[in-house]
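Please predict the structure of the following assembly.
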Amino acid sequence: MRGYVPGEQLNSPDIVKLNTNENPYPPSPRVFEAVRAALTGDKLRKYPQPLGDDFRRAAGRVLNIDPDSILIGNGSDDLLTILTRAFVPEGGLVVSPTPSYILYRELAAIQGARFETVRFTEEWSLPFPWPKPDADIVFIPNPNSPTGTLLPLGPGHLEPFADRFRGPVVLDQAYVDFAEDDTLATSAGWLPNVIVTRTLSKGYSLAGIRFGFALAHPDTIRELVKVKDSYNCDVLSLAAATAAIEDQDYYRGVWAKVVATRERMRVELRELGFDVTPSRANFLWCRRADRPVKPIYEALKHRNILVRYMDYAGYDGLRISVGTDAEVDRLLTELRSILAG
Amino acid sequence: MRGYVPGEQLNSPDIVKLNTNENPYPPSPRVFEAVRAALTGDKLRKYPQPLGDDFRRAAGRVLNIDPDSILIGNGSDDLLTILTRAFVPEGGLVVSPTPSYILYRELAAIQGARFETVRFTEEWSLPFPWPKPDADIVFIPNPNSPTGTLLPLGPGHLEPFADRFRGPVVLDQAYVDFAEDDTLATSAGWLPNVIVTRTLSKGYSLAGIRFGFALAHPDTIRELVKVKDSYNCDVLSLAAATAAIEDQDYYRGVWAKVVATRERMRVELRELGFDVTPSRANFLWCRRADRPVKPIYEALKHRNILVRYMDYAGYDGLRISVGTDAEVDRLLTELRSILAG
């Protein structure tokens, strides 16, 4: 087993990091206040709330859902791990679409399970009927990575979608905050076989604090609690996450800026000859028919711009995160120079 | 499966909490400084160091060990989970001594593995030869909980001890900081089948930030890295942990205070008729022959003092954490009143 290899993390101050889909804007000022308020000897020396009750109440209020349908996680990786351990036996079957998030394969390998993929259709939807009815778990990122494409699963669509699957379906909504569709963000698993995972790493500018949450039927949550580590989220992350989820106004502004930059990037990258998939996330999947993209990735890296080169058995491309406007300007300038060279 | 039930967490300000072995003293002032310094927009919005290199360097220097022999964990629970997933197949065998930490049984259940125990001898050592040679992993807390007893595994003792076991042996040293034996604290796994786990929750007064680390041969660490979540420790916890491990002077003072209070508690609890096992940890295991202890636990709870009642198939007792001197005085006053009543 090779293990999941996260995106490169170079730390030169001159580096433009457009490879791990971090939010280019800082978290809400309320996050800093909340962490400072939690920074007391008593809070640090004592165990945190095992289920994150304060966060659950706040998120329940903001998302208009039952707090008992929320499970806290040490990043959504922790939640994906918990779900794999809860549902997949050794020798079981994990399925996800392809091209998609490559962590699912590693989770299956760690669990001693098989991993199979189902190709997205040409229009980035899923085949019907679902060709792998025996999966112990199906992971579907929505929006998807690396493509940024979105399955329409709002009210009226989720139920027939879920009916396709016999076992549990995990909608990994890591990037949903950039999809501009509130019905998706709160479409929790009222259906017995649907579980939604969310993260504060992307939309909420908090990759550093490791916080995610799952939404599912309260009966499912109660079973998942038995699998998670008792105290999987720390007191400072819980304080930060609670303050962040409560400051929707601030983040709506952040998401709007990211979306505006994404749309400008898309237009400009197309003008540079890239085939850019329309994205509902904070990154763009860029391919080209006229020349290989890997040398472009390497040339950008040489110029201190990190993007992500991804290769799905010959179907390859560059996944470029949406940065600040200044970062995107630098990217475009360097790309023009590389493509002219 | 019932799931691990952590100690009760009541939050009345009047509660004396002597049930989850939290440190009664606050963390080092340097911890607060380090967290404040890490509290920047850029640190929060970016992913943390996947392997915690800054912590590994600091801990390597302080403990005089190779940083590559250190694995960071989101509390030592995370490390125990990683070890179980790495070494135990479904249907495999997890073994620990009894009476001991009850989490190991839950870890085995989540993994779909069997769990068996081996009784400590009357002198709180382990039987020789080891009666369960087929274990996929053996967990041995040292000092042990709930008893606080310590196996002598310093230089010269560890190697013959490890030779008893065919598979990996995990020395869970959560409480080693209170054992006053530096050779134990740094006896990392130079032996191919020994892995040591440590936590900052107890000795370093940081239960709230969730941080632990494992010590093992660098080859073992490299394999375990593949099983852990990519970013299992957050940027604020890493900053806190690094500052804490560097401030050994402060913590030596804390440990000395806890040990002094523990020894006073032991004498006074014996005078109150308890059978108190000599402890090298920050708690005492208290039983009595003349009357059941569960009603004493309940009477203390009624008076806002939480201790832990534990029952190992009829072998029961109270595990009482070492608090501040004022907390211990209140405990002793209430106990005198309860026992006289």
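The CA atoms of residues 93 and 244 of chain A lie 36 Å apart. The longest strand of chain A covers residues 305-312.
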